[in-house]
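From the thread on structure requests for the teaching lab: each student submitted one protein with a one-line request. Submission from student K.M.:

"Model Cation diffusion facilitator family transporter from Halobacillus seohaensis, C-alpha cells only."
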Amino acid sequence: MQTNNHDSTILKISVFGALLFSVMGITWGILANSQMIIFDGLYSFISLGLSLLSLFAFSFIQKEDQERFQYGKDVIEPLVIIFKACAIIAMCLFAFSTSIIDLLKGGREVALGPAALYALIATVLCIIVYRIMKNKQSNSEFVRAEAAQWLMDTILSGAVLLGFIIALILNQTTLSFLTSYIDPAMVLLVSLYFLKVPVRMLIKNTKELLWMAPSTDIQYQVTQAVELAKAKYNINEDFTRVTKVGKTIFIEIDFVLSEGTIINNVDEFDKVRKEFDQQLHIEGHTKWFTLSFTKDRKWVL
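Reply posted by the TA:
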C-alpha cells in the first residue's frame, strides 16, 4: 500500500507540473508569436490530460473487484499507455506538418528575447520535475511513462533554448534573414525526434496487450528455474508459457511426468511449487504462478 501511495504522489506531481507548463507555454508562445513555444505548451497540455488519465486509471486498478476482474486489472495499464503514445504521436505529426507549412511560407518572425527567456525558465523547471520523478524509483509503467514524458519535455525545452540562442546570434550578423526560419525548423526537428519515444512505448505495451513473451531477462529466470526442477526430479518434458501485463507476470508451467519421475503425489507436487516460487526473484512485479503436472501430454498442447 505504501508503494501505491508513493506512485500516486509521483503522478500528482506530474499533473501539477503539466498544468503549470501548459498555461505558461501557450500564453508565452502567443505573446512571443513562437510556434515552438506554443508546441511546448500544447505538449504540456496534452500531457496534463494524459497524466490525469494515468492517475484515474492507477486509482481504478488499486480498487479490488474480484467478481468482475477475476484476473486483475493490470491490462488497463498498457491500454492507457497505448492511448497516451498514440496521442503524442498524433501531436508530433500535426506539429511536423504545420512546421513544413511555415517554412514554405518564409518562416515566422518571433520575439527572440522573450522567447529565449521562456526557454531558459522552462528548461530549468523541466529538469527539476524530471529529476524528482527519476529519483523516486518505481516499477509502475504509469510512472515510467510519465518520467519519459518529462524527459521529452526537458529535451524539447533545451532544444528550444539552444535554437533561440542561435537565432539571437544570427540576428546580429549578415545572416539575420535566417532567424525567421529558426522557429519552424526547431518544431520540425523536435517533432521528428519526439516520435521515437512514443513509438517505443506503443510497441512495448502492444506486446503486453497481446500477451506476447516478456523481456529476455524474465524468460531466462523462469527457464533456469524450470531446468533445475527438471534435473532434480528427472522430468523429461515441460511446456512453459510466460507473459507480462502491467506489474503482473503470468507464469504457466506444465510438467509431463514419466515412469522415471521421482514425484508422484500432491504433497510432492506442492513441494516443487514452493521451491520454484522461492527461486524466482523478480523485483517490483506480482507473480501469477500456475504449475501443473500430468502424464498425458495432450492436456498441455
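TA comment: The radius of gyration is 26 Å. Residues 2-32 form the longest helix (31 residues).
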